[in-house]
Design brief:
The protein is of the alpha+beta class. The protein is built from 11 helices and 18 strands. The termini are far apart. Bound molecules: fe (ii) ion.
C-alpha cells in the first residue's frame, strides 16, 4: 500500500455524493482519510464520553461483571476480576483524569469498551445516522457492526500487526492516532508480519494513516494493520463492519430452520435403516427410506413456505439494525401501562404469515413473536409505529389478553418500548 497517498485534507461532508463515491470506489477497496468530517458522531464531547464510560463501569461494578470492557497491560489482556479494578470512576472527573490515574500504575495500558453507545439510548441515533447511510450505499451487513472505544497510552495495538474480518471506520476523540496498513499480498510474501510488533524493514511497504479528533479513517477488511502512538494519551471510536458472512450462509441458515421444522421427529433419528449399502461392484444406487421421505418433503415445499421462511429470517436480521446487540429493557407490561416506542427510528417490524391467514409475526431486536391477526396487537403496533403513546388496555382484546400481553412483553424485553 505504499503508493496511493491518503485523500487530501479538505473539510468533508458526509453527503449523498460522498457516500455514492465511497460505495463505488473506496468500500472494501482501499483506505481513506477524511479531515474535519462533519458528522453527528463526532459531536459527542470527551466529557460526554467520560460520562458514558462511568455509567457503564458503574453498571459493571454493580453486577460484578466487566463484560464489554477489556484491559491490556503491556499488550497482555488482564483477567476479568482485575478489569473491574481499573475501570473509570466518577472521581476521575474526565478522560484525562482517568488517564492520569492509570498512567501512574501502568506505563502502557489500553482500555477497550465495546458497544459503549448501547449504554445511552439518546446517543444511539448519532451512530445510526452514520450506519444507516453506510448501509444504504454498501448494503446491509449480513453479520453486524460493532462500535468500540479504545483509550490509553499504548504504543502499539496489543495484538500486533493483524487483520480482522471487518472494514473499520476510526474516529479519534483525543490525541493523534496513526494506523499503519499493509496489503494482504505483501503479508502473504512476508508472513513474519503476522502479530509482529517490530516491523521497521516493512515500513516502506506500508501506508500510514494519521488522524486527529474531528477526522475519520477507513480501511477495508483485507488490510493488515496496527495502531501506533508515541505513548501519549489517545481515545478513539472504532466502528467495525463485519463482512465475513456471505449470502449463501444467510440462505442456508434460513433453510436449515425450515427443514428442521418440516422433517420433524423423523429428523432426530441417529441411525438410518437400509436394505443394501451397495451392489457387488460397489455401486451405490439405493436411497434409504428416510431420505426418500425427506425428498418428498422438499418436493412439496410451496413458494409461499419458502417466501415466508426467508422473509421471517430477513425481518429478524434487520430488526437488529445491523448491530450485534440491542439494549434490552426491564419493564413490566400490564393492560394499564402507557407505552411508546423507545426510538421513533426503531419500529416494531411485522409481517403477515403467507401460510396462515390469521397469523402475524412481530419482531424487535432479533426476537420474533407470533400473534393472531384477530387480536388487538396489530392495531397497537401500528399506533406505536406512528409515534403515538398508547394505553395497552385500550388496544388488546380481553378474549386474548394474556396471550397478547405475553407477546408485547417479549417485544418490550427485547427493547422496543419505553416508559411514556
Ligand atoms: Fe484491528
Amino acid at each position: 500500500m505504499a503508493k496511493p497517498p491518503p485523500s487530501p485534507a479538505t473539510p468533508a461532508l458526509l453527503d449523498q455524493k460522498f457516500w455514492r463515491n465511497f460505495a463505488k470506489n473506496v468500500w472494501e477497496k482501499k483506505a481513506l482519510v477524511l479531515k474535519s468530517v462533519k458528522s453527528g458522531l463526532l459531536e459527542m464531547t470527551d466529557a460526554e464520553i467520560f460520562e458514558l464510560l462511568v455509567l457503564y463501569a458503574d453498571r459493571c461494578r454493580e453486577l460484578n461483571d466487566p463484560t464489554g470492557f477489556k484491559f491490556f497491560i503491556d499488550g497482555f489482556k488482564a483477567e476479568e476480576g482485575d478489569v473491574l479494578q481499573v475501570l473509570p470512576e466518577k472521581e476521575d472527573k474526565s478522560l484525562l483524569g482517568y488517564h492520569t490515574r492509570m498512567k501512574a500504575m501502568f506505563p502502557d495500558y489500553c482500555l477497550v469498551c465495546d458497544e459503549l453507545l448501547q449504554v445511552n439510548l439518546k446517543k444511539q441515533p448519532l451512530l445510526t445516522e452514520f450506519t444507516d447511510e453506510l448501509y444504504r450505499h454498501v448494503g446491509f451487513p449480513n453479520r453486524f457492526s460493532e462500535m468500540g472505544l479504545y483509550l490509553g497510552n499504548y504504543r502499539k495495538t496489543p495484538f500486533g500487526v493483524h487483520v480482522d474480518s471487518c472494514g473499520v471506520f476510526s474516529f479519534p476523540v483525543a490525541g493523534v492516532k496513526r494506523f499503519r496498513l499493509w496489503e494482504p499480498e505483501y503479508v502473504k510474501k512476508n508472513p513474519s508480519l503476522d502479530r509482529a510488533f517490530k516491523y521497521d524493514k516493512h515500513k516502506k511497504a506500508s501506508q500510514l494513516l494519521e488522524v486527529k479528533p474531528g477526522d475519520m479513517a477507513y480501511w477495508p477488511s483485507s488490510a493488515w494493520h496496527i495502531a501506533e502512538s508515541d505513548g501519549s494519551f489517545s481515545a478513539t471510536w472504532s466502528l467495525g463492519v463485519w463482512v465475513d458472512q456471505p449470502h449463501k450462509e444467510m440462505v442456508s441458515n434460513s433453510l436449515k430452520n425450515l427443514l428442521n421444522k418440516k422433517i420433524g421427529a423423523a429428523g432426530n433419528k441417529v441411525t438410518t435403516a437400509f436394505k443394501n449399502l451397495h451392489s457387488g461392484s460397489g455401486e451405490v444406487s439405493e436411497l434409504p427410506e428416510a431420505y426418500r421421505q425427506s425428498m418428498e418433503l422438499l418436493k412439496n415445499l410451496t413458494a409461499e413456505e419458502l417466501q415466508e421462511t426467508f422473509l421471517k429470517s430477513w425481518m429478524q436480521h434487520i430488526s437488529m439494525q445491523g448491530f450485534k446487540t440491542i439494549p434490552s429493557t426491564a419493564k413490566k407490561i400490564t393492560a394499564k401501562s402507557e407505552v411508546r416506542l423507545r426510538s421513533e427510528r426503531s419500529l416494531i417490524l411485522w409481517q403477515q404469515s403467507l401460510t396462515s391467514k390469521n397469523k402475524i409475526y412481530f419482531c424487535f431486536g432479533g426476537v420474533l413473536v407470533e400473534s393472531k391477526k384477530s387480536g388487538g396487537l396489530m392495531k397497537l403496533v401500528k399506533a406505536l409505529n406512528a409515534g403515538e403513546t398508547c394505553l395497552v388496555g385500550a388496544f388488546l382484546k380481553s378474549s386474548s389478553l394474556t396471550e397478547e400481553l405475553d407477546s408485547l412483553q417479549a417485544l418490550t424485553n427485547a427493547g422496543a418500548l419505553a416508559n411514556s
